[in-house]
Amino acid sequence: MSGPSKYTPQSPFARWLERRLPILGFMYDSFVAYPTPKNLNYMWTFGAILSFMLVAQIVTGIVLAMHYTPETTLAFDSIEHIMRDVNWGMFLRYAHANGASMFFLAVYLHIFRGMYYGSYKEPRELLWILGIVIFLAMMATGFLGYVLPWGQMSFWAATVITNLFSAIPVVGNSITTWLLGGYSVDNPTLNRFYALHYLLPFILVAIVALHVWALHVTGQNNPTGVEVKDEEKETVPFTPYATFKDAFGIGAFLVLYAWLTFFAPNYLGHPDNYIEANPLVTPAHIVPEWYFLPFYAILRAIPNKLLGVIALFSAVIIPAALPWLDFSKVKSARYRPWFAKAFWVFVAVGVGLGYLGSQPAEGGFLIAARVLTAYYFFHFLVLLPLLAKYEKTRPEPASIAASVAASQAVAEDAAHV
Amino acid sequence: MFERRMSRFWRGRSRSKYNVEKRVLPMRSMGFGLIALAALAFAAPSPALANEGAKHEERPRHFSWSFAGFFGHYDQAQLRRGFKIYREVCSSCHSIKMLAFRNLGEPGGPAFPADEVAQIAASYKIKDGPNAAGDMFERPGRPSDRFPPPFANEQAARAALGGGYPPDMSVLAKARGYSRGFPTFLLDGLPGLVYQEAGPDYIASLLLGYENAPKDVALSDGQYYDVYMPGRRLGMIPPLSDGAVTYDDKTPQTVEQYAQDVAAFLMWSAEPHLDQRKSIGRGVVAFLVVFAGLLYFVKRRIWASVHH
Asked: Which residue from B11, B196, B299 is facing A244, i.e. has the nearest CB?
C-alpha cells in the first residue's frame, strides 16, 4: 500500500486524470493490488460485511427519512404510515431495524476476531483504537435510532440513558437538561435525536475511512499473527482473491439478514415498542436492544449510580487499552494456550452478561451480574497482563509460508492414512 | 416524579408484565464461564418471585395459525369472520384508527369486493369539515377514510367505561406477547422453528381465559378473573359468548372459534402486508442461497491455484 503506486494508466483519459488527481491509482492500490495474507480465514470477511451493512443502513435510512415525521404526536403514526402505505415501506423499515442488529452482530464478531488473533498489537494499535471509536459511534447511532419510532421502549430507553448523565457530580443535571432540550424527554429531544441519528452515520463513514487507511498502511494481521515476510509468496492481491471471498461472506451473511427481515422481523424487537410512548406509564421492564444488554447488565450490577455509569463507559472503552494490557509479543491465540482459554471464558462472560441484562436486576440475577461484571474487568486489568508476563507460549511458525506448508503436510499425511 | 421513576429503575422491578421464566434450564456448557453462569441461574429465582408464583398468569396457549411459518399466509375467510367480530363486538369500545376501509379490499387481507368495501365505509359516520359555512359536519364514510373511534377522546372513553381505557387495536397483535424464557427464545428465530405468533396467541388465549375467581382473589368493581392476564385481573367484561356473532358459513359459532378469528384479524390489522412480505421473502432467500452458493464456487475456482 505504501510506496509508489502499482497502477499504470491505460487510456489517455486515465493518464490525464492520474497526473492531476491520482484517484484511480489510489483505488487500484487499495482494492485491487493491495496484498492480503493468503492464510486469512472467513473471520476476516467481516470488514467487508460491515462496510456493506453501513452502506445498507444509510441507503434504507435515507429513504425512511423521506417518510418519517420527528414530532412526538406524529412519529409513531408516521412509522405505521411507512409500514402500511409507503411502497416497499415495510421492507425498508424491517431491513433498517434488523440491519442494525446484523451490523452489531458483525461488529461483535469482528471485535472478537481481533481479540483472538491479537490484531490490536504493534503496529496496529491505532487501527484498533479507531475500531473502538467506530463501535462507540455505532452504539450512539443505534440508541438514537431506537428512540425514533416513539414507542414505549423508545421513550423509556431515552429517559434511562439520558438520565445516566445526571450522575455526573455538580453539572450532571444541567447536562441532562441540555441534552434533552428540557426537563424530560419530549419533542425537542426527539428532534435533536433525529438530527443526530442522520448525522452520525456520515461521521462513521469518515472514521471507517481512517480505519481502512490505517489497515492499508500496516497490512492485515492473519491467523498465525506472524507478519508477512515475503510478499510474493505469502500474499495474494485483494482482487480477485479477497474480493470474491468477501463477496461470498457477504452473500452468506445476507441469507441470515434476509431471513430475519422477511420471516422474523420482530424477533429481536420488543412488543412494548408497538405501544405509543406514554410519559405517564412506565413499562414493567425497561430493556434496551439486545446489542446493549451486556453493558446494561454492568450498569445495573453496580449499586451506586455514578459508579454504575463509570463502569458502563469503562466497559465499552477498556478494550481500547488492549495493546498495552496484553503486551505479550505473541499475537495469535493459536500459540497461547492459556490466553485462548481466557478468551473463550471472556466470550461466555459477555454472553452471560447479555442474558442477565435482559432479566430483572434482582435476586440471583443481580448476584450473577455482579460476579460477571467483576470478571469482565478482571479479564482486562489482571488476567491479560499476568498472562502476557507469565504464559509459556508455543513456538510461532517462522513465517506464514512455513505455517501453510506445515498444515498442508498434516493434511497430506491424513489423506495417506 | 421523574426521580421516583428512576429510582424504580435502579432497584429493578420485582414483577414483570410478562411471564418471568422461573425455571432456568441448564445450558450446554462452552467453558467454565457458562457452567458457573448456569449454576448461578439455577439459584436465580428470588423469594419474592416464588411467593407470587400462585398469582402468576398462565402461559398463553398455542393455536394453529395459517399465517405462521415460512409458507404462512392469511386465511381470507377467517379474516372476514374476524372482521365481523371486531365490527359487532370489539368496535363498541376499541378504536382501530390506523386501519382504512380501503384496506379491507386489498389483496392479502379480507379482500372484500370494492362495492362491499364502499358499503361498509358508508355505514360509518365520519366527521368532516369545516364546510363553506365554517361548520363541521358528518357524512357517510368513503373507502379512503380510516375507521372512526368509538369515543371522541380518552376521557370520554374512561367516563363511559367506568375508568378503563381500551387500547387501540391497530397494532395490538404486535404490541402483545409473553416472555418465552431461556432457551426457547433462542430457537424462536430459527428457520423451521420460527415463532412470531406470540401476539395472536396471547390475544386468543386472553379471550378464552376468563374463569370464576378463586376465593382468595379479591376483584374490584369492573374487574374479571382471567388466567392469562398478568396479575390475572382484567378490566374487560368477557366480550364473547357462544352464538353471539352469526357466521354466514358453517364455521362453529363458539367462543373458541371467535377468539381465534378475531385474533387473526388483529394480526392482519397489525401487519397487513404479511402475505406479500413472506412471498417476496421466499424469493429473496431462495435467490440469496443460490447466489451465495455460486459465489462460493467462483471463490473456490479463483483460490484453486493458491496454497493456503
From this structure: B299
